[in-house]
Amino acid sequence: MYPARITDEFPAPSYRGNQKQALADIRAAFERGKDVVLVRAPTGSGKSLLARAIAGCARTAGDAAAEQVIDAYYTTPQVSQLDDVAEDALLEDLCVIRGKNNYDCILPGETDTPVNQAPCVRERKFDCQVKHRCPYFSDRAIASNRRIAAMTLAYFMQTAGSDVFGKRDVVVIDEAHGLGEWAEMYATIDLSPQSIPMWNDIDVPDIDGLDDAVAFTERVEHLAERRVKELRNKAELTGEEVAERDSLNTLRQDLGWFREDYTDTESATTWVVDQADGEHAPVTIKPMNPERYLKHTVWDRGNRFALLSATILNKEAFCANVGLDPSNVALVEVGHTFPVENRPLYDVAQGKMTYEHRDDTLPDIARTIVRIMAQHTDEKGLIHCHSYAIQEQLKALLDDFGVGARVRTHDKEGRDGALSAWKRSDNPDVFLSVKMEEALDLEGDLCRWQVLCKAPYPNTRDSRVARRLEDDRWGWYYRTALRTVIQACGRVVRAPDDYGATYLADSSLLDLFERAEHDMPDWFRAQADRLSQPDLPRFAPDQALSSLSSGTKRRHDRSRSRSGDGNHPLSDVWD
User: Fold this and answer.
1) Among positive and negative, which fits the CA dihedral 476, 478, 481, 484?
2) pTM over 0.85
3) Burial, 321: exposed, middle or buried (Cβ in 10 Å; 0-12, 13-18, 19+)?
4) Which residues form the ATP-dependent helicase C-terminal domain (predicted)?
5) Sorting pLDDT into bands at 50, 70 and 90, what band is 349?
6) Cβ-contact 99, 195 below 8 angstroms
7) Do 17 and 45 meet the contact criterion of CB atoms below 8 Å apart?
């Protein structure tokens, strides 16, 4: 790596905000010999441009000896982030490669078939005469030979050990704050009717501990292997059978890796097992700290690493979570350039939103939302509901209060369309969202205010969360929630001249700010220090609807974002 190139490799014609200083600090960190640099850069810092400059410092073929690796990877866990990179003219030399399911076959009669279900994977001994023109294999070949290959984190992990995408000189991971949690999620093994087609043929025992889980996985793997052999003996498979075969092969690999890791006395991974409903019920096997998994899929893939995010809150804790030595890691802080007065936080707390208090608190929150709607009568708003149960209750309450004409919701299957329609609309509608705290760009009039209904603490019924709390890791618990809050606060203010208000409706959010204050970035602490109680209008549902009653047209013909492409911000983080 040649850190001195970082300025020349910056792709924009000029700097904005703190980009020039950030590049100097990143260069200095690498020149001090650090192999990993964490770049804590808030919204509006231009992280993708910084990432491109870092990737450009990688050795090239002209710099390297025969035995040295060259070039760079850019990767992100978020599909929408990769979409943005692909569309950015300043990043045109990042060569994007996606999973097979994103490409269509070009054979006659198969042009609506994704490559992962094309004849080459359906038919035994199929010899594709146009493989050299296949959009997937063509893009893969191009990306493998380009200076910077860009892909989702899932694809990056899946290609570990491949001859096509081997080790490179530099790896840049954007939106890297949840790397440990994403790896845990990716390495989690789900044994259920959804993942095992022959589920009804399995007598699922009551799993009491990991030894029982190991024995059960051996049985499952045996049945999966037998079913795969049956499929392989067929001359031609249907698209559904191809998906079944690939799913079972992945499951077999995961089960084998789990048993190998569990029996390895030197492995750092701790496993937990969940079976909520006992005998005959689905089983989930989860890694607590998949350091070994990250080593193979991430850390062995490059010489130098840059990890960028607005919410890497604690360097030592982050390093411990992903298996890095803090002494070999530098943290570069990029200052915020958005005026703090443009991103106010307001205390409208009505009580606790824990499960036992929710029925008492939520009606008060709903009444407060009506008052906020009246405050922003002609501006669009976003409600972070945290769960579909809260969303359903809140929608019913707002309907009862008579403001349902201004309220939109979504379900699990219809997130794409509902989000796109709300963004396209010129109406001052309020969108009740679930799990949209990240990767959502609502610049300008797309949204001027939002409400956080519940402190986003991890679910204590999850065995991994419970285990961490048993080990007294409360700092992790509070940091995880704070990280989500900070991410959420960044949805509605996207530029220095943008503005948007965030209302905190759960009193536990105020408690969280106190408990996690020492982990707040300086720019967010300044925001939290200005927390105040707003002067809202009285509760008057007719006033909340005044912009509609005065004749606002309900139009759905204008869009400031992509629509219809099936890639809303969080529809499929793993592509």
Assistant:
1) negative
2) yes
3) buried
4) 388-511
5) very high
6) no
7) yes
Closest Cα partner for 407 from 436, 437, 370, 375? Answer: 370
| Structural domain containing residue 226 | 193-281
Q: What are the pLDDT digits (tens) for 3-40?
A: 999 999 999 999 998 999 999 999 999 999 999 999 99
Give the tokens for residue 80. 């929408």
Tokens of 110: 């198969």
Q: Is 125 helix (H, G, I), strand (E, B) or coil?
A: coil
Which letter does DSSP use for residue 236 in this model?
B
**252 and 353 in a common domain:** no
User: Tens digits of per-residue pLDDT, 392-446?
Assistant: 999 999 999 999 999 999 998 888 889 999 999 999 999 999 999 987 889 999 9
Q: Mean pLDDT, to the nearest integer, of 490-507?
A: 94
Please tell me the predicted confidence (pLDDT) of residue 280.
Answer: 85
d(Cα 414, Cα 409) in Å, to the nearest integer?
9
Number of domains in the chain: 3
Is residue 563, in this structure, part of any structural domain at all? Answer: no
Dist. CA 337–CA 344, nearest whole Å? 15
CA 477 – CA 479 distance, rounded (Å): 6
Say which residues have a Cβ less than 8 Å from residue 294's Cβ, sequence separation at least 6.
Answer: 179, 180, 183, 322, 323
Closest among 301, 306, 308 to 156, alpha carbons compared: 301
**In a shared domain, residues 504 and 380:** yes
Same-domain pairing of 351 and 208: no
Band (pLDDT 50/70/90 cuts) for residue 194 is: confident
CA 84 to chain centre: 14
What is the Cα–Cα distance from 187 to 170, expressed in whole angstroms? 24
Cα separation, 507 vs 361, in Å, equals: 10
